[in-house]
Amino acid sequence: MVPPPLPQVLHMTFGTDTVVAEGRNVSVNGAAVPEGRPYLHKGLGVTWPGDWVAVASSLGVRVAWDRHLAVTVTAEPELRGGTWGLCGTYTDDPADDFVRPDGDIAAIAAAFGNAWKVPAAGTEVPEGAG
């Protein structure tokens, strides 16, 4: 029996704002953002470059998602050494790239990513996969 596909949902928090992207459906703090229409409110922007959904924050962080598995996180240089979570510590030191929420270092990328995600039943990435 083939397991059902994983849900294609990305939850992001920027300061006090929460963005949820499910396929091409995007909401900011629970309010729907019309597909394909640029959104900008209080320093948070949503755009649809090609097949991707991109969210940029005045906090200096940008997240782009291909609506499947690929996610890119970009932080402004001013944030160097001041980030945490999936951005890592942004110190250019590979030894601290995979710091988990408990402060320990994950041995592999899948363990690092799984440590930071919001738990949802059946969505763990197999740790042998990356």
UniProtKB/TrEMBL annotation:
<dbReference type="GO" id="GO:0031012">
    <property type="term" value="C:extracellular matrix"/>
</dbReference>
<keyword id="KW-1015">Disulfide bond</keyword>
<dbReference type="InterPro" id="IPR050780">
    <property type="entry name" value="Mucin_vWF_Thrombospondin_sf"/>
</dbReference>
<protein>
    <recommendedName>
        <fullName>VWFD domain-containing protein</fullName>
    </recommendedName>
</protein>
<feature type="domain" description="VWFD">
    <location>
        <begin position="1"/>
        <end position="124"/>
    </location>
</feature>
<dbReference type="InterPro" id="IPR001846">
    <property type="entry name" value="VWF_type-D"/>
</dbReference>
<dbReference type="GO" id="GO:0005615">
    <property type="term" value="C:extracellular space"/>
</dbReference>
<dbReference type="Pfam" id="PF00094">
    <property type="entry name" value="VWD"/>
</dbReference>
<keyword id="KW-0325">Glycoprotein</keyword>
